[in-house]
Amino acid sequence: MLFDEEMMLLAIEEAKAAAAQGEVPVGAVVIDGNGEVIARGHNIRETLGDPTGHAETEAIREAAKKLGTRRLTDCTIYVTLEPCPMCAGAIMNAGLKRLVYGAFDENMGACASAVCLFEHKLPYKPLVRSRVLEKECAALMTDFFVKIRSGKKEISE
């Protein structure tokens, strides 16, 4: 298995942890320039009652804290779902070198779907790779919302 796919599997683990908490199943992992995992995150918006509690922002905060800097210029973030405008902005502000994501988000995606912030004249843009384990990432979302709509109280794998 290729390295990007291996890292996306870790992000999928985070997304499953979010679903187990009743959160929308989005997971993120940040690696440093040596390929070491330095941060993980998953959605915690409902848990914290915080609209900024997205997987990406949680992982970026943890990575910045671990490295002692807001500049994550040698890092890559792996996310199961295409980042929204807020998260795409956070990725740019952190200076992440690469963004790798799985499924597209037709409603809120800010990298290719609803809008593409990276096409605008901005001072920094990451390298982007999409569709990494896309089917697996999309299935997490589909399964979660099917369970929610069916009225199940518990969300499990």
Poorly predicted tracts of residues: none
In whole angstroms, the N-to-C terminal distance is 23 Å
Element string (H = helix, E = strand): HEEHHEHEEH
What class, by secondary structure content? alpha/beta
Total beta strand runs: 5
So what's the overall shape? globular
Strand order of the largest sheet: 2-1-3-4-5
Characterize the biggest β-sheet: 5 strands, mixed
Backbone CA Rg:
15 Å
What does this 3D model show about the protein?
The protein has 157 residues and is an alpha/beta fold. The protein has five helices and five strands; from the N terminus they run αββααβαββα. It has helices spanning 3-20, 45-48, 55-67, 85-94, 134-149, and strands at 27-31, 37-42, 76-81, 98-103, 127-129. It is globular, with a radius of gyration of 15 Å.
SSE map:
Blueprint: H1 3-20, E1 27-31, E2 37-42, H2 45-48, H3 55-67, E3 76-81, H4 85-94, E4 98-103, E5 127-129, H5 134-149
Helix pairs in contact: 1-5, 3-4
Give a brief description.
By secondary structure, this protein is an alpha/beta fold.
Tags for this model:
5 strands; about 160 residues; alpha/beta; globular
